[in-house]
Amino acid sequence: MKRTRRGVLRSIGAGTAVGGVGTVSAAPPRDGETIADIASNDGRFTILVAALDEADLVETLDGNRQLTVFAPTDAAFDNLLSDLGISKEELLNRDDLDEILTYHVAPGRRDAESITTSDEVPTLNGAKVYVDGTVLNGDQAKIFETNIEASNGYIHAINGDNVDGAGVLLP
User: Fold this and answer.
1) What's the domain range around 66?
2) Residue 64 lies inside a defined structural domain of this protein
3) I want to staple 122 with a disulfide (CB 3.0 to 4.6 A). Which of 18, 135, 136, 166 is the partner?
4) Residue 50 and residue 74: Cα distance in Å, rounded?
5) C-alpha of 72 from chain center
6) Which Pfam families does the record associate with it (predicted)?
7) What is the pLDDT along the chain (171 residues), one digit of tens a residue?
């Protein structure tokens, strides 16, 4: 079932995304930078930030809701673009961009131990990411840096090193 950008944003805003271990209700953020701030200020995530902006999801990662993001680096996106034979602009114009991006976001504040000891993690798009230690979805991506702490959750940086995938999770 194809979800529209409006439907995804409505479910995120209403707090009705799939629950599970680590799900936390919206509470005032702690002091400090949000997930959106950290991603925007880290030069490794420029394509991710551009995609979030294009899909109107920056505000979601800048809000009070506690979230966990599997953040593909620019290198991971470059690998994906090469594998798909498309340009960055073509990626940013995909109709399913919001679905891809919300597949990288889990509800709740989940640190590395919570993620790496789980078999699966629910995501905001309703699908699950399958976890085997630091490897995600069998071979799509690998977590290489964990627990980048934000006021509203955690970022776990992912790429395609040491796995067969590009490093970007595809639903």
Assistant:
1) 31-159
2) yes
3) 18
4) 11
5) 8
6) Fasciclin
7) 444 443 433 344 433 333 334 444 445 556 799 999 999 999 999 999 999 999 999 999 998 899 999 999 999 999 999 999 999 999 999 999 999 999 999 999 999 999 999 999 999 999 999 999 999 999 999 999 999 999 999 999 999 998 999 999 999
